[in-house]
């Protein structure tokens, strides 16, 4: 059975944007789409003050799923769609769903069942913690730019992200920018050490070129560009993402771009990027 693209929804504007993005991605990949709504009863389970909300939550959830399915039917009628109303904590539900998914898609900020997407628990407790790519989508995305940006740093995680980015660029028939952001190290105990900036930059550019060469051979139809910049990785990636349709990062790496998904770089990128962000981790051994 073909694994579906799974999207979580709570009916919010951001969730609707995630559903539309997931439907487009499923159409490009020829995969089915599974729309999931988590019914979280915990906020209402107060023994001293019981509230009869079970039927209301279920009805609201089914209506949210029906509306999301209708959006897909209107925009991507060829995509096979199924829906699921699942009881439980939203982040736990999505992590469980990831075991039978090709990809997980969530909105950048929601309410109700998927509250606090970027700044809260759901996206941060799913991205990087499952074995499939997790895409976080912002609402109000502008017109397509025809560009996929990927951060590279030489780690296995970044290599997996690079492969994912090439696949997305090929399916979208758009350009790819591989970005290597680097900074000169600061030697606290030897401040007199100096660097030849041109020599360092040349070394970084050669490094990125070597990284890209194998992927260019595998994807000769993708117009790929490399860029090595002396800048903070968050600033470089966010700036590049302003003119991109998708920004891809590894879930854990090293060097300029790499960081744990809950660490400073990837967390900051998720907070500040103006486009959809895909967090990709390598398969486990």
From TrEMBL:
InterPro entries: Rossmann-like_a/b/a_fold (IPR014729), Universal_stress_UspA (IPR006015), UspA (IPR006016). It comes from the Bacteria. Residues 1-138, 148-281 form the UspA domain. Pfam families: Usp. Belongs to the universal stress protein A family. This is Universal stress protein.
